[in-house]
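[job 0412] stage=complex_fold ligand=magnesium ion status=START
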Amino acid sequence: MDIRIGNGYDVHALAPGLPLWLGGVQVESPLGCIAHSDGDVAIHALCDALLGALALGDIGKHFPDTSDEFKGIDSKILLSRVMALIGAEGWNVINADITIAMQKPKLAPYIVPMRECLASLMGIPVSRVSVKATTTEKLGFVGRSEGCEVYAVVLLGKNEELLDS
Ligand code: MG
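[job 0412] stage=complex_fold status=DONE, emitting structure tokens
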């Protein structure tokens, strides 16, 4: 069995009047992420974790924010492209664990839809995708609602049997 672990981290600044996308789901919020893409900071961290597991660089290398091709792009497309890269090398995602740090709004109603969306994009059961949300107790830039930060960890495997259980 060959396994690889990857971790990803991303931050976006928040501003009023922008849509907020997290984990492929639109979240009702007066603040959204400032970004070149749709600003889905959770998918960006996940993509970096997936790329990191195989030492394939980072999301900025594959999808530069200077390119018009990626202006306003749906981050689900970026994740699909990253999954294609991983699949081409014969790897499967065993599981993923994502932590979103955001002061508000409460993300509890969106957790299951995010897990379902990400599991579908990664081609794995929902039970293998964890999405957690935390505030930072009003501390720091997250606590002041100036930004949203996300940590992601993934495990990849090369044996298809690993996905059976
Ligand atoms: Mg980003």
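The radius of gyration is 15 Å.
[job 0412] exit 0
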